[in-house]
Amino acid sequence: MLFFNRKAHKAPTADRTVPQHIAIIMDGNGRWAKRRGLPRSAGHAAGSEVFRTIATYCREIGVKYLTVYAFSTENWRRSEEEVGALMALFEKYLHEAIETMAKDHIRLHFFGDLSRLSPTLRELIAKTDAISEQYEGFQANICLNYGGRDEILHAARAFARQCVEGKCTPDSLDEAAFSDLLYSAGVPDPELVIRPGGEKRTSNFLMWQSAYSEFYFTDVLWPDFTPHDIDKAIESFLRRDRRFGGVKA
Ligand code: FPP
């Protein structure tokens, strides 16, 4: 039985037993496919279904934001075939999401430099943005052509431009003002970052936002990841002693 069983687990956000923001590096699709003698794209397709399941589960247990790393600024280095398959998968997912978002109560938001995506993908993103604006509640942030360093550079350039235009001075910049220039503006930092797939690194994901996040690493490959693994990550999170640089009272 799941730890955060749907019936047993009431109003989890009220007593803050569940992190309000979970972020996930969805890793291991390629190895999952290889072990089955399938093309890497089959691993990504399976991973996309797992994303749906996990997003639904996170919403049900009271998580407010789920941010997933779907395509990094470095992923363009993969074969044309794999990049094409991933882009086709994102298009397929967005077409389906446009039909189901209202029913599923899932708002979608995108972090990343979207200018490099195809016009079709950008149009679909604009449609899901417009639908999302009509709702409140659970929000899934999908990182597309996203890199933590790229995001920080993008924000630094935006701030420099504002200074040149006389709208601010270098000394007026503080952490809150800088956060507002990131792709994640308005979204609280993730308390918990999960990385399936066995690697123990952050791979340029949410570099600014994860400064005080708790990390949970598991060898489970993303296409095998289940709501039970979310429960295990949250259980581990709840045992952590978060001091934010201070000392325990
Ligand atoms: C990393 O695993 C995974 C990716 C680069 C793609 C992640 C994309 C999805 C799970 C599809 C999500 C779709 C939506 C709609 C959000 P890898 O391929 O590097 O795995 P490997 O380390 O085993 O090779």
Low-confidence stretches: 5-15
Proportion of beta-strand residues:
5-15%
CATH second-level architecture: 3-Layer(aba) Sandwich
**What do we call the CATH homologous superfamily?**
Decaprenyl diphosphate synthase-like
Strand order of the largest sheet: 3-4-2-1-5-6
Biggest sheet statistics? 6 strands, parallel
Oligomer: single chain
Instruction: Give the helix tally.
Output: 7
Give average pLDDT, whole number. Answer: 93
Distance linking N and C termini:
36 Å
Task: Give the gist of this structure.
With 249 residues, the protein is of the alpha/beta class.
Protein model, in words:
- The chain is of the alpha/beta class.
- It has a single domain, classed as Undecaprenyl pyrophosphate synthetase (3-Layer(aba) Sandwich).
- The protein is 41% helix and 14% strand.
- It contains seven helices and six strands.
- It has helices at residues 29-35, 40-61, 80-104, 119-132, 148-164, 175-179, 227-238, and strands at 21-25, 65-72, 107-111, 139-146, 192-195, 214-217.
- A six-stranded parallel beta sheet has the order 3-4-2-1-5-6, sandwiched between helices.
- The protein is globular, with a radius of gyration of 19 Å.
- The protein binds farnesyl diphosphate.
- Residues 26-31, 44, 47-48, 51, 68, 70, 75, 89-90, 93, 142, 197, 222 line the site of farnesyl diphosphate (FPP).
